[in-house]
Amino acid sequence: MTGERLRTAGLATMLILIGLLAIGCATTRSATDTVGGWFGRTPIGGPASGVRPRAFYASSAGVKIYESPDAASKIVGELARHEGLLRFQVQDGFAYVTTAKGSRAGWVLERALIAELPASPAAPAAPASTPDAEPDSAPERPEEPSVPPEKSVFDPY
Known about the structure:
Blueprint: H1 2-25, H2 31-38, E1 54-58, E2 63-66, E3 75-79, E4 84-91, E5 94-99, E6 105-109, E7 113-114
């Protein structure tokens, strides 16, 4: 009877370990990130790395996105001026970023990022009055959207 209990306990333990392994493999993290963590390698920044990103913007148009943190590496894209980015990691003067929409990712020169958008220039003052305007008419207000806009990491409030 004791041998049968040991065999049953061993089988149950093996089934639990196989189940845990299957659940671990079914997560959204890549196998490279997961296995790399087993061997002490920290994963490169990115959505799966668990690093909390910070919001930044491209300082100018044409900021190059590189495949690796090296200016000699392959260029995989370019950014528009003031394009929203999420920065995950900084290494050797480069920052690993993804675009706010998640369509592109790679390494950019860290000095090409800005944390806040510059203040927009003041709009020209409207004329005080026009001779053709009716004094009783109220100025037109733009129609407000019925659905509030989606929250963004770039929203300061």
